[in-house]
Amino acid sequence: MYPPAFEYWSPKSLDEALSKLQELGHDGRVLAGGQSLIPMMKLRLAAPANLVDINNLTDLAYVRADNGHLAIGALARHADVVDNDHVKTISPTMASAAPWVADPLVRNRGTVAGSIAHCDPEGDWNSVMLAVGASVVATSTSGQRVIPIGDFVVDFFTNSLAEGEMVTEIQIPRPTGSAGGAYLKLERKIGDYATAAVATFLDLATDGTVSNAGIALTAVASKNLKVTEAEQMLIGQTPSPELFAEAAAVAAAACDPESDVRGPAEYKRAVINAYTKRGLAKALAQAQGGAS
Amino acid sequence: MTTTHDPITTFEVGGVGHSVLRKEDDRFVQGAGNYVDDIVLKGMLHMAILRSPVAHARILGIDASEAEAMEGVVAVVTGAMLEGYNLAWMPTLSGDTQAVLATDKVRYQGQEVAAVIATDPYIAKDALAGIFVDYEELEAITTPQQSLATETLIRDEKEGQTDNVAYTWEAGDAAITDAAFAAAHRVVSLESHYPRSHPSPLETCGCVSDVNPITGQVTIYLTSQAPHAHRTLFALVAGLPEEKIRIISPDIGGGFGNKVPIYPGYVVATAASLVLGKPVKWVESRSENIISTGFGRDYHMTGSLALDEDNRITGMRAAILSDQGAFFADAQPSKFKAGLFHICTGSYDFGAAHVTAKGAFTNKAPGGVAYRCSFRVTEASYLIERLADKAAHEIGMDPTEFRELNFIKKEQFPYHSPTGFVYDSGDYHGAMTLAKEMIDYDGWREKQRNQDPDGKLIGIGIASFTEVVGAGPSKDYDIVGLKMFDSAELRIHPTGKAILKLGVKSQGQGHETTFAQIVAEELGIPANDIKVIEGDTDNTPYGLGTYASRSTPVGGAATSMVARKLREKARKLAAHLLEASEDDLEWEVGKFSVKGSPESFVTIQDIAFAAYTNHPEGMEAGLEGVHYYDPPNMTYPFGTYIVVVEIDQDDGTWEVVDMVAVDDCGVRINPMIVEGQITGGLTEGFAKANMQWISFDDNGNCIGSNFMDYLVPTAWETPKFKLGETVTPSPHHPIGAKGVGESATVGSPAAYVNAVVDALWSRGVTNIDMPVLPHRVWGALNGVDAKP
User: Fold this and answer.
1) Where in chain A is the domain with CATH 3.30.43.10?
2) Quick check: B426 pLDDT over 80?
3) Domains of chain B as residue ranges with CATH
4) Binary contact (A193, B287; C-beta < 8 A)
5) Which pLDDT score, from 0 to 100, does residue B785 have?
6) With CB atoms counted within 10 Å of each terminal CB, which end of chain B scores lower, N or C?
7) Which positions 650-679 of B are in contact with A (Cβ < 8 Å)?
8) What are phi and psi of A128, to 5 degrees?
9) What is the average pLDDT across A97-109?
10) Residues 101 to 140 of A: which have CB under 8 A from any B CB?
11) Can you give the pLDDT at residue B4?
12) Which bin fits A264, alpha (ψ -120 to 50), beta or left (φ > 0)?
């Protein structure tokens, strides 16, 4: 590959990385797994003047269960969350999505946090994060702030990081009751972006009613789309196929897909409708202790 | 299940019928192959090509001054400069001319406009941004239908060209066919587009051109499937003396037809080396390969079958409108403008057929290469096998029974087809019977009858293809005048080890193993003792190269024949050594013995030693020979594939749940390699049926210019295949082999599509064009026009 020339920085500590990012401002890009950035540079669609490689910051390569939430460090690879016990226990939606992210080669290199920060509306993780109500920890030389995912994902390839900030951790809250989740993705082949995908999450109260619900959609809007209206229809209710069908119809109406080589908009809406129903049914079965 | 003939050699000798491991794989699996991009020469410069961003535009000016001023840039080459050397245009393999670097207009997105030669590949790429081209955009013509309707001329540089027609062609007999249709009880018709695809070898195209300024020697390391033919073309195009041109095709990382044409990049790099006196390397990027080099297919086909009241086919009509792109550059025998499409009568016995074909220029990349296909045989097979299935469904007859009713019978071979082919051999009923048995055809039909109409829908698809490969007999087959023979030179050394040199060129097919096995079969020299050399025009006999499944039918036959020549000389040497008369000797693998006294024998190794140490007076020393083989006929591999799919009605996805491929490629030299070829071909067929195509928007922008958009299936998507085999040896090939490299790519696409349409037939769906994308299936089920 023959990208345009760039400066390469390889800090040995987080402090050093943050200082370098502060110094470079908009001219600096963080290089973690590089699975989106490098191909864009190869095609000369991206031409960053400086790359700040954080691969030495191995302290950030963690996936752990902290008090109240699942914590994923900035250098944790997609492969690290596949078949991971903490992930399976705390976030069934994330566990369901993990094997569908890209392909095994990309999963070995690409990072969860990097993919989230990339804000590609066709990316998988931001739908999962929107469905489960995750937060993003952003760090700079002047300190740290915790950004709710809904505020972090601004638009098409746009996040709300300030100059000099980098994502250091993703936090996923622990469900309060018995929870289930699913990520159903239609792709043309392994490694493809989604034609359409749906992340679902259900948290059940002891009486079997829905205490919390999450539905978010991939590749059918200018950003990953949380369908709050459909979620609200479920909360406080006793789940049923009819209720799921109503929520799915709302999700299908809420999205705004484009017609392209992956299919016309009405097809993608039909897929969202079908997959929302299926995803909610899977989440429910799992929350009720049945098959996941 | 296998019915391969028992080998006559031991496994150690490794003749025909042994699955010996591939000799070349030691270096391939250890990353020790030697590809064009691995070639590094002293003082070598690097070339990058500036390509047109638009599909159709007049070039008003090119300003390269900024690029020329960049440090490390040695030269910027434009079409105007090449005109000075009479190199701005070059001939195609179909008698047209093609721009090397555009002078007057650009005619497709990705067309070569200028080239930068620099000391470093990064600088060469960077400098492309310093070339400014002033384009006046013209109407982009993106379909052949638009091409024939518009006033806009794509080829306005051609004197006398008043339309966008690239060629017209026909085969068969119109009057006889009209009569068959007039008398028909039923006519079954199909309109179908076989979409544009791309061979996409893993290694892209490239070269290192090295012109020695002192000696005038031109050495070109080239990604070439046909190095000898390319040498001659270089001599003709550039006016260079042929004895001073040496083409070396080192290891080639896949070709699939993509590396048959000569591309502008090769010519520009060679011209640059000639002018600069230094070696110049050019290697394409993936996107460059997909958008600009030879595509496959892109045939708009209308076909009909005439049937009598007994459901027998009595006639066929086929009309082709082919999308040629901006230049007519099909790689095909000169006599046949639509390749061997007229094999479209397939495996069926009827006397009337008429094929018409018309090619249209469009603002797309040229090509029409035989992508893992013997010159448009894939399109032909697809049309007849879709038609056969459609006919069966319209009649309400089981599609296997319809085929069995209409197959050419075993005893009818050699069979004269209505379009002029003479099928050498076949047993179509045998392959069908085995395929049905292996997949439990009746069991699947039973499951289909009992399926839940709201659940996944089962579909069963069949294709019983006949190919025509092994081009070809010199009376009918040539490429730019070069007859399509092929050659083998065999040198047996004093210690009994041998070197075999061939005019064909492996791109991964396993020639170093397979052709050594042929010599092992003929002479009993262990295959491991035979080194196979290809791809160096200074050191191999002339041949037309490897494509169209021709290496084993033609190069393999040449190998057999040269080995047999040497065996005859060996007999004379044996007679001398055994002090016996030649007539008293008998050959068994690896040795001559005296009839009646088997203890009195000499081995081929003894004989080889004697050829250099103890040859009789009056006999030439040595044990070497060469043979040029002109095949008496083509070979006709065939088979039956049966696919079972399940369709998800919600999202239109379909999954292959069972598949059987019964192939008959005659005698199998290395069964393992043959199975590898079939598995790969079934996968490429699946790719085209399921996901793969090159499309364009209305402005002629290529959609699908990299592997994120032009989809190549992985092991995950690829179905599991059960392979079966029948063996009907070719009666005219020395060892009865027919060629197998392309059978599965040719045969399988129709089987997959037939399966999907079979599942949806009861819902009123009669056709879905490839690729059968989920949204097209969903659209067909829901009555929504879901194009593209």
Assistant:
1) 7-53
2) yes
3) 25-33+486-629 (3.30.365.10), 36-138+204-252+259-292 (3.90.1170.50), 296-471+633-782 (3.30.365.10)
4) no
5) 79
6) N
7) 650-653
8) -60, -45
9) 96
10) 103
11) 56
12) beta
- Report domain A7-53's class: alpha beta
Burial class (CB in 10 A: 0-12, 13-18, 19+), B495: exposed
Select from B363, B614, B611 the least CA-distant residue to B495. B611
Query: Computed from CA positions of residues B552, B555, B557, B561, in that sequence, does the dihedral angle turn out positive or negative?
Result: negative
Closest Cα in chain B to A262: B775
User: Is a pLDDT exceeding 90 seen at residue B404?
Assistant: yes
Distance CA B542, CA B557 (A): 15
Class of the CATH-defined domain A178-287: alpha beta
**Model confidence at A68, in pLDDT bands (50, 70, 90)?**
confident
pLDDT digits (tens, 9 = 90+) for A30-48: 999 999 999 999 989 999 9
Query: What residue of B is the nearest CA neighbor of A42?
Result: B285
Residue of A nearest to B287 (CA): A43
Q: What is the mean pLDDT of residues A2-13?
A: 96
Distance linking the first and last C-alpha atoms of chain B: 41
CB atoms within 10 A of CB B442: 12
Question: From the list A5, A103, A188, which residue is nearest B711 (CB)?
Answer: A188
Q: Does pLDDT of B788 surpass 80?
A: no
Whether B2 has a pLDDT exceeding 50, the answer reads no
pLDDT at position B121, please?
97
Mean pLDDT of B717-736: 97
Distance CA B419, CA B487 (A): 29
Amino acid identity of B586? E
Among candidates B633, B673, B659, B661, which has minimal Cα distance to B744?
A: B661
* 3-state percent breakdown (helix, strand, coil) of chain A, nearest 5: 40, 25, 35
Token pair listed for B85: 């050397």
pTM across the whole model: 0.97
User: Six-digit token pair at B337?
Assistant: 């403008």
pLDDT at A110 over 90: yes
**A residues 186-245 lying closer than 8 A (beta carbon) to B:** 186, 188-193, 195
The H helix count followed by the E strand count for chain B is: 19, 35
Question: What's the burial of B533, exposed, middle or buried (CB within 10 Å: 0-12/13-18/19+)?
Answer: middle
Query: Binning pLDDT at 50, 70 and 90, where does residue A292 land?
Result: very low
Strands B702-703 and B624-629, by their bridges, are unpaired
Lookup: tokens for B535: 């791809």
pLDDT band at A291 (very low <50, low <70, confident <90, very high): very low
B51 pLDDT more than 70: yes
- Give the gap in angstroms from C-alpha A26 to the nearest C-alpha of chain B: 23
Q: By the 8 A CB rule, do B670 and B513 touch? A: yes
Are B779 and A267 an interchain contact pair (Cβ–Cβ within 8 Å)? yes
- The answer to whether B287 contacts chain A (CB < 8 Å) is yes
Ranges in chain A annotated CATH 3.30.390.50: 178-287
Enumerate the CATH 3.30.465.10 domain ranges in chain A, comma separated.
58-173
Is B784 in Cβ contact with A264 (below 8 Å)?
A: yes
Query: What would be the CATH architecture of the domain defined by A58-173?
Result: 2-Layer Sandwich (3.30)
Residues of chain B in contact with residue A278, where contact means CB-CB under 8 angstroms, are: 650
- pLDDT, residue A290, reads 61
What's the pLDDT tens digit per position in A175-225? 999 999 999 999 999 999 999 999 999 999 999 999 999 999 999 999 999
Tens-place pLDDT, residues B575-585: 999 999 999 99
Establish if B308 touches chain A: CB-CB under 8 angstroms.
Answer: no
- Closest partner CB to A189 (pick from B287, B717, B779): B717
Beta strand A135-140 with A143-148 is: antiparallel
Q: How far is the C-alpha of A245 from the C-alpha of B118, rounded, in Å?
A: 62
